[in-house]
């Protein structure tokens, strides 16, 4: 059997990663707290959640990724598309705080590409992880 062959028909289905998004509304916008994995299977749900929140005409939304255990390029693309939609609609979309895996991923991406300055809260690259288990990208 080579890598191109489909899995055996009796093989158990691969579990789909779980993603949970909760919203906390504030007078000036709010925070979407994301928990789980953001990958090809779950990135559309993340983007839909952010866009639904933006549809409520929030002035600003912060996407808290401190409980995200994995993110890949499809997750980053969902965040970038949501950010672009926010710019078109006059809404601020930014990320932070982030978990260690997200901080590592962003550090890699930032070494290769520039991200929109207003997407990351403090306009800086992620720093080393503190003992609390996540990196806060905002000094504010």
Q: Explain this structure to me?
A:
- The chain has 140 residues and is an alpha/beta fold.
- 31% of the residues lie in helices and 29% in strands.
- It contains three helices and five strands.
- It has helices at residues 43-55, 73-89, 100-112, and strands at 19-26, 29-38, 60-71, 92-99, 134-135.
- It has a five-stranded mixed beta sheet with strand order 1-2-3-4-5, with helices on one face.
- Helix 2 (73-89) links the parallel strand 3 and strand 4.
- Helix 1 (43-55) packs parallel to helix 2 (73-89).
- The longest helix has 17 residues, at 73-89.
- It is globular and about 50 Å long.
- Mean pLDDT is 76; it is low at 122-140.
Summarize the helices and strands and which ones pair or pack:
Layout: E1 19-26, E2 29-38, H1 43-55, E3 60-71, H2 73-89, E4 92-99, H3 100-112, E5 134-135
Parallel strand pairs: 2-3, 3-4
Antiparallel strand pairs: 1-2, 4-5
Helix pairs in contact: 1-2
